[in-house]
Amino acid sequence: MEKPLLVKAKLGSLRVSSRKTRLAADLIRGLDTTEARKQLSFADKKVARSILKLLDSALANARNNFQADVNNLFVAEIRVDAGPTLKRWMPRAMGRATAIRKRTCQIELILKEKIASVTSGKKKPSHPEVVQDKLKEDERPALKVSAKGKKEVKLPQEEKRPFGASGDAKKRIASRQTAAAAGKKIFRRKSI
Questions:
Q1: 10: domain range?
Q2: pTM over 0.85
C-alpha cells in the first residue's frame, strides 16, 4: 500500500496577527484546491491574498517536484502559529511610554491527494542509496540451540543507559551516586 502524497508549503513572518490570519485560513481547511482558490480570491480579508500566494506555491511544488495532478489535491491541513513580535514604543503623557506589539504569524499548508495515484510521490533521489547487504563476521547474530532442538537467534546486546543520556552523563550520574553513598554530608537548606 502506498502512502498518500503530502505537499508542504510554509510562509514565515507575515506581518498580520495570527488571530486575523486564522479567520481566512479556516475558510479553506478541507476544501478542494480549486474551491479554496475561489474562496480566497473573493474573501474580504487583507491576509487572503497572502494565503492564496502560499496555496499557489504549494500547487507549484506538487506539479514540479512530485508530478502530481493538481485537480486531485485538497487542503488537508493549514496551521497558523504566532511568529516573532516586533516591539515599538509610543510616547505618552508625563514622560511615560506605552508598548506597541506588532505581531507576525507563520503559516504551514499541507496538501494531500484525494485518490492515491501510482505515479505520484515517486521523486527521483538526487544521490544513489547506499545499501549494506552483508554483515561483518563479528556483527552476525549468534545461533543458540535450545534443549528442545529449536534454533534461537541471540542478538548482540547494547550497553544500557538512562533514557536520552550520553556516555558522559552516565559517568556524572555514577559519580554523584558514589559521593552520596560514601557517606559525605550533603547540605540541605530544609530537612526532609
A1: 6-113
A2: no
